[in-house]
Amino acid sequence: MINKIKPFLPLLGLLILMGVSIRVGLSAIAKSGSDHQRVSQEENVLAQKASILGEINSTLSSVSSAFSYLFPSQNPAVSAVYQLKSLGFKHGVLVTNIKSGSEVKDKSGLKRVDINFDLEGARPSVFNFINELPTSVPAIFPEKIKINDLGGVSRAQLSVKSFYADLPTKIGTVTDKVDSLTDDELARLRDLLSKSSSSFIELPASEVVSPVSEPFSSQ
Amino acid sequence: MAIRINLLPGDSQSLTANRKVNKQLKSIMYILIPLYVVMILVFLGVYLFNFFRIRNLTARSTAFKDQIKALETTEQKLYLVKDRLSKLKTAETTYKIKKPIENANLLLTIVPTEAVVSEFSVDEQKSSISLSFPTSDSFSSFLRSLYTSNLFSSVVMESFGFNTTGGYLLTLNLK
Questions:
Q1: pTM exceeding the 0.80 threshold for the entire prediction
Q2: Burial state string for A106-125 with b = 16 or more CB within 10 A and e = fewer than 16
Q3: What is the rounded CA–CA span in Å between residue B19 and residue B15?
Q4: Would you call A35 and B124 a contact, using CB atoms and an 8 Å cutoff?
Q5: How close A214 gets to chain B, by Cα (Å)?
Q6: How crowded is the C-beta side of B143, counted as CA atoms within 13 Å?
Q7: Which positions in chain A touch B76 (Cβ < 8 Å)?
Q8: Can you tell me the distance from the alpha carbon of B128 to that of B98, in angstroms, rounded to the nearest whole number?
Q9: Of A60, A108, A102, nearest to A77 (Cα)?
């Protein structure tokens, strides 16, 4: 029996070797193919990202790090009141009796501060003032308006709201895709940057050079 | 008559059969072994081709990553600008009285000059206007203009009165 099988052993061995080689070879090629596809996709994303960042670099170089300019990250009540006064001066209306509330969580997910104030001036000026509010920096959105006309002078009571939200704390990784600014976003950015905002300065804490001597010390 | 006599030993017939099988096996091996070598060479070639392609792509990816890291500040700015603009867009969706204010402005242009707008209010639910007209003609002219303007889908008269000093007093709720 063994003698009958003996001549076939080399062929059998070769066939087994071929089978194992085909299996190992195909799986290695399949793996290198999927690796290539993965690396190729990653390279495309990185190339696109590098291109977008290179193109947008000159546009964004003019944007300062004060992103609160575009949308506040802290309670904008003080900036909003400043804008109300500025717009009042611009449109020739008197802004008085300004009252600001505390932080409110809006149903849109943003934080909000509500401000009530009175306006007095010519009716067209009052409406021009109201129409410019949503495009100011920070944006102020009227919620309720009540106008009384008396002797050619309009007196209005307004309730407005101004929104803010925390800055994001995480950005994507190096290999994450980015989208460039759309035409609408670019136009909006340029429009916002062209507007004047309130300018506040922060006084730095004075450095203590030497401790103040104790005036009542017996020494 | 010739008689065929087989002088070969009895088991030599199986030896001949074995030789035939061996010969056939050898021919099969002579075909399979080169095929096997060619197959291995093809596998190796494809694998090495992919290997070098991956290596080139990895080198390019590394160069792009270095470029991106150098533009890290720009990426942060882009991310923050997009975030702020999207928040602003969300805030704008809450501004529901933009259209009522525009309509109010247009409405006030059709109020006759002799009429007096004593009060006008706009909020998210409705708008209302209180006017006084010195004559019935200016009152009816206003109502006609209001009807043809199509500024509001609903106009409800909340109150209507007359007195000798104010004239015709009208309050409308508008939607």
A1: no
A2: eeeebbbbbbebbbebebeb
A3: 6
A4: no
A5: 49
A6: 16
A7: 171
A8: 15
A9: A102
CB contact under 8 A, A18 and B87: no
Q: Do residue A146 and residue B121 have CB atoms under 8 angstroms apart?
A: yes
Compute the residue count for chain A.
219
* Distance of alpha carbon B130 from alpha carbon A36, whole angstroms: 74
Largest CA distance in chain B: 161
> How far does B3 lie from chain A, in Å, by closest CA?
34
> Concatenated DSSP letters for B118-142?
EEEEE-SS-EEEEEEESSHHHHHHH
Please state the ipTM of this predicted complex: 0.77
Which residues in chain A are closer than 8 Å to B57, comparing Cβ atoms? 36, 39-40, 43
Q: Kindly state the DSSP code that residue A138 receives in the 8-state scheme.
A: S
Write down how long chain B is: 175
Q: Which of A56, A146, A174 sits opposite B74 (nearest CB)?
A: A56
Element (H, E) at A46: helix A9-60
β-bridge mates for residue A38, sequence order: none
Tokens of B138: 């200016």
Nearest to B101 by CA among A23, A133, A202, A122: A133
β partners of residue A104: A112
What is the distance between the alpha carbons of residues B129 and B109, in angstroms, rounded to a whole number?
13
Instruction: Specify the long-range contacts of residues A58-62, CB closer than 8 Å, at least 24 apart.
Output: A59/A181, A59/A186, A59/A189, A60/B74, A60/B77, A60/B78, A60/B81, A61/B74, A62/A193
Per-residue pLDDT of chain B (175 residues; tens, 9 = 90+): 677 776 766 555 566 777 788 888 888 889 999 999 999 999 999 999 999 999 999 999 999 999 999 998 889 888 888 999 999 999 999 888 888 888 888 888 888 888 888 889 998 888 899 999 998 888 888 988 888 888 888 889 999 999 888 789 999 998 8
Separation between Cα atoms, residue B93 and residue B95, nearest integer Å: 5
